[in-house]
Amino acid sequence: MATQPLRDNRYADAAGRGYNIFRSWPLWFQGLLAALVLFFGWEVYAAPPWKLGGPPPPQGIDFLATDGTVIAHRGPKSAVPIDAEELPEHVRQAFLAIEDRRFYEHGGIDFRGLARATVTNLKAGGVVQGGSTITQQYVKNAFLTQDRTFVRKGKEMLLADWAEMWMSKNEILSRYLELCYFGEGQYGLVAAAHHYFDRTPSELTLGQAALLAGMVKAPSRLSPIDNREASFERMRVVLGAMAYAGFITEEQAEEEPDPKVTPGAEDDEGPSGTWFVDWLMPQLPEDFSGSVQTTLEPDAQARAERVVRNARLGGAEVALIAMRPNGAIAAMVGGKKWTPEAFNRATTAKRQPGSTFKLFDYFAAIREGATADTLIEDGPIDIDGWQPKNAYSGYYGQIPLSRAFAISSNTAAIRVAQDVGADEVIDTARDLGVESEIPENLSMALGTANLTLKELAAAYAAFALGKYPVEPYGLAEEAATPWRSLDAKREWAPMLKLLYGAANSGTGRAAVIDGQPTFGKTGTTQEGRDALFVGFAGNMVTAVWVGRDDNKPIPGNHGGGNPAQIWKQFMSGVKLEPLQLPLKINQIKRPAPRRTMSAEDADMSTIEIGDMNEGDIDIIVPEGIPDLPEGFGDMPSSAGAEDLEPEVPQADMQVPATPPQGQPAAPPENGPGPAPE
């Protein structure tokens, strides 16, 4: 232990002597030495020796699913490694002749060639000849930008000699051929040979090799696909250069025919997930490359695509988005067919949500103190001449909120929104994550706002998670935790009761799956222009929309039809795990098909939640709920829109705060039951 201070002092003395020696040198020598050290450090930083000669860097972006598989690739394809020594002689010589004929005779910089190019350019009054060596082009492509500046050119020249110190000529030529850009998104000789001629570099003919070598100067302008004449003219220049260099004879150069362009088949975009990846791309930095982990689940995505593909929709379009309760998107289908220019109806299209918007009406009321058993009037209503109707005949009169929500009473929804106030409904929607514009009148209670399917799915996810707002995300690293919690007894359980009743005893019965309790709501807009089902079962929240892009009516289109069926088919085949809900569904009884019962017999007020202890709430659906109407769950061929959803006013219609009171009409003898919404 006693020797340690002595050793430290010895090191300090040596450092002091070295510094004194440095100080004794002339200042100009000190500055030169410091500049050399800085220059060496910059070269190591700009082009690390351990990266020189390494494999081609990754190009573009690989999007990874949750299991690590690649779901899609965007951007240029990564170059394939090449060994220049193994290429046919005429392939190497084509590039050497036109780009750097003296490649094997000079270092990183060809001073003779640089002087020749300078004189030629001065005589021409512009840049007509380049003086860059293949080594310079390699370091530019590998380590620098493509900026045409003197600073970049200076860096290029400095790094060229640095590369020659660490790499052989064959390594430099190989890396150069791997990084060259040949237009059409093709990087590297392997990709270019396949793209333009459907063959490997070793199979290229003299003319094909000359054509590709000529493209390096201006890849887009000299593409044989877009500018055949200019491409072949440039090929003749390359052949002439090869003859001048002695690589081939003049007769060979003249007799070589123009090659036939036969593009090879391109790789598929990926097994699935293209709608999803198109949505993610704008969220990444412009200069990002490499791999990115996403939330997409391959099995769920494949199931969604298969279900959509098998749906018989005629001229209608479809969209589906599925996410876990925390917002992690598991599957996304933006339409019947994906193309690079396709419109994503799951994330971009804004359509009227119909009665799925009633989630916000009723949650606003429950936040203000209402319960699932609070009574609301289902009866005629007249608001400044606007008389919204239900999708079924007759009225129930005084009914609980749970029943009004299940049968999707429009008159009850209007009164719910009136009681709490339109502003409160809008605030509720905002709290649940809706950002789209919402009309500030009572018509919005029936879904006259234009929302995205993604917004709706996220809003419904709050009642699967018990927290809000849920923010949908597709990049695994961007998960956000909702900061507000639902009150388990006062808010969460009553809303679950409403959503369970709507799916199992109301308009959404065609969506009910086996194995997990189903919660959800249907929605249909005027004349069947939009039909939706949004809901969750287990730990998956899914929203489905069916409609036309031109917004034309679709007779018979309703949320309990194709959307509910697509939802069920999808949810029946994905991995679901039980949710930790503030209630227990110990018994689920399917309604008995007693079509002669009265509306009073179908009263759902026997479902009790409010008086039970938190975390110990049972839902027992009573027998005797009216059965589905004839043909419910199918796409009727002749039903008109007036049978499905009442007409609603335009978003800018002004509605008074307090509507005139109307007397409820007596319900039909057999009770209206849930309408095919």
Structure description:
The chain has 677 residues and is of the alpha+beta class. The protein has 20 helices and 14 strands. It has helices at 4-24, 27-46, 89-99, 111-124, 134-143, 150-166, 169-179, 189-197, 206-215, 228-244, 250-255, 274-280, 298-310, 358-367, 401-406, 410-420, 422-431, 453-465, 488-504, 562-571, and strands at residues 61-64, 70-74, 290-293, 317-323, 329-333, 375-378, 397-400, 467-468, 484-485, 518-524, 530-537, 540-547, 584-587, 618-620. The chain has a five-stranded antiparallel sheet with strand order 5-4-12-11-10, with helices on both faces. A hairpin with a 5-residue loop joins strand 4 (317-323) and strand 5 (329-333). Helix 5 (134-143) packs across helix 6 (150-166), helix 9 crosses helix 10 and helix 14 packs antiparallel against helix 19. The chain is elongated. It starts with a helix and ends in a 57-residue tail after the last strand. Mean pLDDT is 79; it is low at 587-675.
